[in-house]
Amino acid sequence: MLINNEAKLITNEYALTRCARCNFCESVCPTYMVFRRRVYSPRGRIWIIMFLSQGIKLSNDEYTGLLTCLGCRACDLVCPAGIKIAEAIHDAKALLVKAALK
User: Fold this and answer.
1) What's the CATH code of the domain at 78?
2) Which residue from 18, 25, 30, 53 could staple onto 75, CB 3.0 to 4.6 Å apart?
């Protein structure tokens, strides 16, 4: 339950619901360019964080998608909604690590 509440804070703090699904972030994401799967894109990672906030159990693929973000921040530069996607992903990754250590 704690992870859900903390994921909600990340969702709200970074206003992830503002994502317009424009896909600009996908065109600059190195991991998406390699894997060509939404789960490895910034947009997919936003949805994964939102799944966490709703208490939805993640698949191994979704965990991997979130954890493989390189933190390059290219997605932040092209996001027309001004979402700091890389920072939100960083915080979510820290949340997963913290939960795993408990």
Assistant:
1) 1.10.1060.10
2) 25
The residue assigned the tokens 């530069």 is: 77
Residues near 99 by Cβ (< 8 Å), separated by ≥ 6? 2, 3
Q: Which residue has the tokens 């390699």?
A: 34
Confidence of residue 46 (pLDDT cuts 50, 70, 90): very high
| CA 17-48-72 angle, 5° bins | 85
Q: What is the distance, to the nearest Å, from the Cα of residue 75 to the centroid of all Cα atoms in its chain? A: 11
